[in-house]
């Protein structure tokens, strides 16, 4: 049962590693031709995500093709609203869309706290198949959206530059906002526990829309729910990635998590000072660096590794890899981390 490559887990736990582990946010499903071939077979994103054998296949592709030190289960953060009773669609080239976004108290009351096995069994089955087929080569990362980020999609009904409908609800009806955030949190805790039982070796919480809240709103509407999740989830290392929440790094460092994800606007040295020595940092190359030539990529990756130092660092991008990135440039990123951090 022991992993052949457990660099990611050791780095997360603060144990010594002989080199820096590396993986990429959104490594499954955005850049590989091999992914698009399987997606074609499944017919749609949701078809693929709900077919465990195929989801497992595209989860393992980046391990085989790119040489990353971890797999991340192929799914989406929006499976939680769906499981709670709010179906979504993935509109080609536009992203997620909820035909019936949450608007009223009755809408919130109608939603249920989802159960991992009965409502999200297809994800758990994909995790079990992935674990079997990975054959302990690398750890498998499970994940969920942070309650605030899920709330933002459920109220807004789609992506948005401002998420002003969702933010309006925070200001006009804080009580209803908290009621919905709590339902999402309870669903998420059950889901993450299910993922761990199914075999996830580490979990990451994506708070992708953290940065559009004020520090005060973040303290009121996001951090308390992240705290509940971090306290409830035990047994595997936990990563919190709050995009653009540079203002909340010290408070995030107080959460019961092991790793803090940084985006490229957050300076590694300053971040280390803010969070102290007892957390691992993950990140944070600007995904746009991968549009540059190989020499520039190598230089930027080396600068990043120097700034983080050799221990308590998991190399990654500062956000998900962009869909039009050349896989050879991604390989250059990965190879440079492996060689230079050794
Ligand atoms: C905000 C968010 C979402 N989803 C996710 C986040 C948090 C991370 C982040 O901030 O980027 C997380 C996510 N979504 C997906 C994964 C799979 C695992 C991985 O690749 O790391 C993960 C970890 C698959 C997906 N999720 C989605 C796709 C593309 C759908 C397709 O293949 O047609 C994939 C592979 C669709 C999706 N899903 C979402 C959006 C905005 C979109 C449309 C834009 C896009 O392509 O990313 C919501």
Automatic annotation (TrEMBL):
Subcellular location, principal: cytoplasm
Domain Uroporphyrinogen decarboxylase (URO-D): start-end pairs: 21-30, 141-157
Signal peptide: none
Record GO cellular component, one term: cytosol
Subcellular location field: Cytoplasm
Entry's Gene Ontology molecular function annotations: uroporphyrinogen decarboxylase activity
UniProt EC number: 4.1.1.37
CDD domains linked to this entry: URO-D
Top-rank taxon: Bacteria
Record function comment: Catalyzes the decarboxylation of four acetate groups of uroporphyrinogen-III to yield coproporphyrinogen-III.
PANTHER family: METHYLTETRAHYDROFOLATE:HOMOCYSTEINE METHYLTRANSFERASE RELATED, UROPORPHYRINOGEN DECARBOXYLASE
Protein's UniProt name: Uroporphyrinogen decarboxylase
Species, as recorded: Xanthocytophaga agilis
Organism lineage: Bacteria, Pseudomonadati, Bacteroidota, Cytophagia, Cytophagales
Gene encoding the protein: hemE
């Amino acid at each position: 049962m022991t992993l052949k490559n457990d660099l990611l887990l050791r780095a997360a736990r603060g144990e010594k590693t002989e080199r820096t582990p590396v993986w990429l946010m959104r490594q499954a499903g955005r850049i590989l031709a091999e992914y698009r071939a399987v997606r074609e077979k499944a017919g749609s994103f949701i078809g693929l995500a709900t077919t465990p054998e195929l989801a497992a296949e595209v989860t393992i592709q980046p391990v085989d093709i790119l040489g990353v030190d971890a797999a991340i289960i192929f799914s989406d953060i929006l499976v939680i609203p769906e499981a709670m009773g709010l179906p979504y669609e993935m509109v080609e080239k536009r992203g997620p869309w909820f035909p019936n976004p949450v608007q009223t108290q009755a809408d919130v009351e109608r939603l249920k706290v989802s159960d991992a096995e009965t409502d999200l069994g297809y994800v758990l089955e994909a995790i079990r198949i992935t674990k079997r087929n990975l054959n302990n080569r690398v750890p498998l990362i499970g994940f969920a959206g942070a309650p605030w980020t899920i709330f933002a999609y459920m109220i807004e009904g789609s992506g948005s530059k401002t998420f002003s409908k969702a933010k309006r609800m925070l200001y006009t009806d804080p009580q209803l906002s908290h009621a919905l955030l709590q339902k999402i949190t309870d669903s998420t805790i059950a889901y993450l526990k299910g993922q761990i039982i199914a075999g996830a070796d580490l979990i990451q919480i994506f708070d992708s829309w953290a940065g559009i809240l004020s520090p005060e709103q973040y303290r009121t509407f996001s951090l308390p729910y992240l705290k509940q999740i971090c306290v409830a989830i035990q047994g595997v290392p936990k990563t919190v990635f709050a995009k653009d929440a540079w203002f909340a790094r010290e408070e995030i460092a107080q959460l019961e998590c092991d790793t803090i994800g940084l985006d490229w606007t957050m300076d590694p040295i300053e971040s280390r000072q803010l969070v102290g020595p007892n957390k691992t940092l993950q990140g944070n190359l600007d995904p746009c660096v991968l549009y540059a030539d190989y020499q520039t990529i190598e230089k930027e990756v080396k600068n990043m590794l120097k700034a983080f130092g050799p221990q308590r660092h998991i190399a990654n991008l500062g956000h998900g890899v962009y869909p039009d990135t050349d896989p050879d440039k991604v390989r250059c990123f990965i190879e440079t981390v492996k060689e230079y951090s050794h």
